[in-house]
Amino acid sequence: MKIFIMRHGEAEHFAQSDAERALTERGRSASAAVAKACAEQGYQQFDKVIVSPYLRAQQTWQEVATEFDAKKIEVSPDITPYGDSEQVAEYVNALIELESLDSVLLVSHLPLVGYLVAEFVTDMVPPMFPTSGLICIDYCPEKRSGEIAFNIQP
Any idea what DSSP says for residue 20? Predict the structure, then answer.
């Protein structure tokens, strides 16, 4: 199965709260370009998409949804910037089993995205993610380990 982890696009520096920071035009275009590159590799449909409730993540999903199709979309407060990667990985593993998922996309934030990759790829140091970056992991739920299939950066 495939797990896709994407960091939101570039966001404005200031807003009333961190959760309300909106994407910049550059963030919108970079996210769309990454989605197009992923789709060109044959990955356009996800069994489930899990998106942070923060505005910049929601807007990133809106931008990439023009290239991607999702059977189910879930907004999760657990994947905000300081979410617990171990808890999120356990939740994703449970969803994979309960919903028989073949693909899942998470749209989230630093530092969580790096820690999530390290949860799903055994013995990996959490990678840094540029804004709009996307990593695809070939994942074996039975072994609870995977390896990076590809990494798309804007």
Answer: G
